[in-house]
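tool=predict chain=A
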Amino acid sequence: MKQYESEHYLFHYNEHSTAERDLSLIVQTQEACFRYICDVLRVEPDYKLNYFLCETPEEVARVYGDCEPCNGFAYAPDKIYAVYNDKTRCIGFHEDAHLVSWLIAHNESPAVKEGLAMYFDRKWWNIPNQEWVAFYLKTDRYKPVPGLLDEDCFYSTDCTLSYPVVGAFTEWLISSFGMDRYLAFYRTEGNPAEALQSVYGKTPEEMDSAFTGYIRLFGTDPAVEARIKDLLQEAEIL
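tool=predict ok
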């Protein structure tokens, strides 16, 4: 693979690929995302991140060498593998947030880790996380945060539900109680439900009730609701 070095990254890509064609945009995007993540989390790697831009999920598996085909993932401390082609462009905040947050703590909870990454993403399928949660609440599809904090429950829940919910919950935590307390929560080892109660002084059920009460204040936008239904039907989830 060819290589290009920027201030904080070493990009790996194939010659004559879509990634090579769009390299300038990719570099600009990732450097801006990196700067924002580091500023928010108040930490910064003293090494460059290796970004492997692959053309297919199968190439991701081949380049990494030991994984199932997928669109992208981060391998701490410094590697990101991502599909980039005309249809799928896995760039932006998500995987970079995983690597930068690894410097804060090696948190093992998928709900906590993905919640923070989705906090930076803000959107799922181009629709804000909060809109997804409002839709799931209105249609009785919502899965409470206390359940999602359980690893088995999180992995058994479709990502179209779990990821936006934990992302919106993380945004609510940070906006309601501040970054200092959130970072204390992120650093707390052990059971994430117990960590949540220890740091915030309320049970996960009480926190979930306050969170969903906040989301319900905004209702749903009919146009966005219709778009969510269309996307879920296209994905054969509804």
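The CA atoms of residues 43 and 103 lie 7 Å apart. The chain has two domains: 2-101, 110-234.
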